[in-house]
Design brief:
Length: 138
Amino acid sequence: MEFSCSQLSTEVLKSIFDAAFIDTEIDDDGDLVVSDDMQVWVEGLPDQDCFQYTAFFRIDKEHPREKLLEACNSFNDSYIGLKASILENNKVITFNYALLMKGGGTITGKEIVRLFKFFQDVVAASMEDEAFAFIVDA
């Protein structure tokens, strides 16, 4: 089955991952958290014609901001469409992938799960890089 962006509600996304036997939960804010090798927030954003995957990790506070930004910039230069950012006064790093679905684009449940696995694999591989040694809570 193919889904348009407007059809990718939290409940629909949850059912897609549940059908793939991947653990899911809806958090206190109503967001879908998918847990496989790591926790990833998955959300449809119909007003922006996209849906996205986001992972959050705590940072060791001893690392200078310049090193954090250097690691993020290196990641961002390596992957088109994926983004690493530092948030909350250098306490959190996020990895994000947003899939634009403008012009009536559709996606299958299988593709949503495949992209989730890809996102998760890229983030996990990046965290093994010495440049991301500042991540303390994965």
